[in-house]
Amino acid sequence: MTNDRSRGLPDAAKYTIAGQSAARLASLMGVPKESLSGLTIDQVRERFPIQLNPRWFWFEQICGTVVKTDPGTGVAYPVPYATVDVDDTECSFLGYFPASSPWAWHFPIRCTTHVIATTRTDACGKFCVWVPRWDIEWVLRYRLERRCYPVILQRPTLGDIIRQLVPQGDPATLGDYEFGRLVDAVAEKFGGDAAAQVAGLRSSGGFGASTSAAGAVLGAPARLSQVRPPLPAELRVSAAAGDRVHPGVATLAGRLGVKAKDLASVDPRRWMGPFMRCHDVIVPEWVPILEVPDISITVLQDTTGTGTPVPICGPVNFGVSWETTPIGPLTLQAGPNALAGVPCGPTSIPCGDEPAIVTAGLLPVTGDPSVYDSVNGFAVRTNRPHPSGMFTDPLPLPAGQAPCCGDLLLYGCNQTDPGATQYRLVYTYSSDGGATFTAPTPFVGLTWLLYRLNGMGTEEWHAVSADAQGWYPIALPAGPNPWLPGSLLLDWDTTGFADGLYVVTLDLGSAGVVSSSAAPVAFTVNNKAPTGTFAVATASSAAGPFTPIDAVCPVVSRGATPTDVYFRVTLPAAGAHLRSVSMTASGCGAGDFVFISGTGGFNEPAGSTTYDYWHADVTVDAQALTAIYLLPASAQEGTYIFSGVVASRAFNPDGGDGGQHATPAWQYDPQDVYITPISAFSVINR
């Protein structure tokens, strides 16, 4: 059965009930499974009108996106035309609840599956599928009857792991917690994948935003595949060749009073988790968990071009919270074997009778100077100056100068010259703001993948590449469907190029001879993060004199009888296209810092420990903040922190952060290139 967005709701006259799905519905209705298997929904309604709850025959639409995340950059690329199977599953597990961990892991004993819906992702990796409500009802009823199951089958969210590390215990207070230290702590405890998720909160708007804005980000499942179960020694050894049951598992079976053969399929190297741990009921360390129903999702893709799809994601067990309404949207992470496209660009590119570079990602770079300055290479509405220098500025904001960073996808028109068979993009480069330029140089060595469905409905991939002079073919291999993304001229990873001003021209021609050229478009590129390092000194009064604290293993002694300590904190920030600089003070335990005074910035909000500055005009490339803080004698001993964020105005316009949806479009303040300096020290009474 195929359920997708183009077909809408499943046809009740044709939707056939079979397999485990039939067993689920039969159990809800109180009739034998055999009496339903093979019937359509309409036939069941006719034959069993009394036993039916109309809700069971509703269908729930589940939508999401399949992506492949670059481990180096954290950018999520869409996986187009992959098959998404939704399975009715029933699994038995050996549950592991180690006393030393807040998590639980489940080792599969046996699982059976039955496909209840299937669809394909579109060109942007998105999908929607309709799932029978009775399958969801059965899962919910099963968990409701078992007190701890809704907990021990729940995967931790990003908010759950942050609550373990944030002293306040509430993700809504993240704005008061040092960001860089949080990312480092997540990486150390939960692995790099989870740390990348937390780092993404900064540019997504989830960090330090309102509770409602942060809720969706913090409620996403945490990527914790690197958090391994702390297995006992007997299970960490490898099984000998020929062992029908792992020796450690056999020992465990004896301890649990079950037959070793019943656990023969348990492999200590194969586990699901981590999951939340039930604290309301005392759970033994090892527990058989039998016949657990769920609705799992598996994604398959033909990654080799042989016509045989292979799993690239999943099965994702217990990865969906069926209790929530609406369900999703889901983000399914594909494995390294998946074929991914580029971030989806504009749905259409307006072309006249002249060649043109039209957009960079979703950002228009020609035709509207109120959005983009195509002469100097800046976005005008993004990360604009605040004339007051405050983060929250009530004054009218002037035009900005936001450069680009990261992977720029240039879209445009290259089919305007009937006699041209090739195109290329040529740039001149200036490292001094346009005072001098290099000779024109073609982009060479840049390649990317295009994709489409062929006449048989199978995905095809085509690698676009240039010759030694940078010429790309205009005509692509013929077929019944166009190659996607359409109108893509160049996939330009600017991180492999020097920062500065690039003036790019689109040439059309044949046999290496230029026949026509587009109007040049400038791009100012800035991938280099700004700089900023804390300097901290202490004194017994706000007037000083101040003594710098030790840079190695810093310790501040307040004497056996604690006294007030004043801190002078300086954060000199610098970098091309500086956007903002901020610092805050935090600590552990009762008592905390009090902001006294500062120079170079503003105390926002008043009474907090945050001191910050937003560039007042586009010429600002440096700003130093100095603040005086008081740590009262009543504050506890412990570790205290000064943390900061120094951000560039540079941003990536692929649209993944929703910038094009701002009002007006692209008038927003992303933070894509930044650093998080920190100064941590111990305060002792001696």
Structure in a nutshell:
This protein is mainly beta. The chain is built from ten helices and 36 strands. The longest helix has 13 residues, at 192-204.
Class based on secondary structure composition and strand pairing:
mainly beta
Helix content: 10-25%
CA distance, first residue to last residue: 74 Å
Strand proportion: 25-35%
Question: Biggest sheet, open or closed, and with what strands and sense?
Answer: 7 strands, mixed
Radius of gyration: 30 Å
Number of strands: 36
Mean model confidence by pLDDT: 87
Q: Which parts are unreliable, with pLDDT below 50 for 5 consecutive residues or more?
A: 1-6, 169-177, 204-214
What count of helical segments does DSSP give?
Answer: 10
Number of domains: 4
Give the CA-based shape.
Answer: globular
Verbal overview:
The chain contains 10 helices and 36 strands. The chain has 686 residues and is mainly beta. It folds into 4 domains: 19-155 and 271-333, no CATH class; 158-218, no CATH class; 356-525, no CATH class; 531-684, Immunoglobulin-like. A hairpin with an 8-residue loop joins strand 7 and strand 8 (310-316).
Structure keywords:
disordered N terminus; 10 helices; 686 residues; 4 domains; seven-stranded mixed beta sheet; single chain; mainly beta; six-stranded antiparallel beta sheet; 36 strands
Write the layout of secondary structure elements.
Elements: H1 19-29, H2 41-47, E1 59-69, E2 76-78, E3 83-96, E4 103-120, E5 126-132, H3 133-144, H4 149-152, H5 158-163, H6 179-190, H7 192-204, H8 211-218, H9 233-236, H10 247-256, E6 272-276, E7 286-301, E8 310-316, E9 330-333, E10 356-360, E11 363-364, E12 372-373, E13 378-379, E14 407-413, E15 422-430, E16 441-442, E17 448-453, E18 459-464, E19 472-473, E20 488-493, E21 500-510, E22 513-517, E23 521-525, E24 531-532, E25 535-539, E26 547-548, E27 555-557, E28 565-574, E29 578-587, E30 594-599, E31 602-603, E32 611-614, E33 622-631, E34 638-648, E35 674-675, E36 678-684
Parallel strand pairs: 1-9, 27-36
Antiparallel strand pairs: 1-2, 1-5, 3-4, 3-7, 4-6, 7-8, 10-11, 10-14, 12-13, 14-20, 15-16, 15-19, 15-21, 17-18, 21-22, 21-23, 24-28, 25-26, 25-28, 28-33, 29-32, 29-34, 30-33, 31-32, 34-35, 34-36
Helix pairs in contact: 6-7
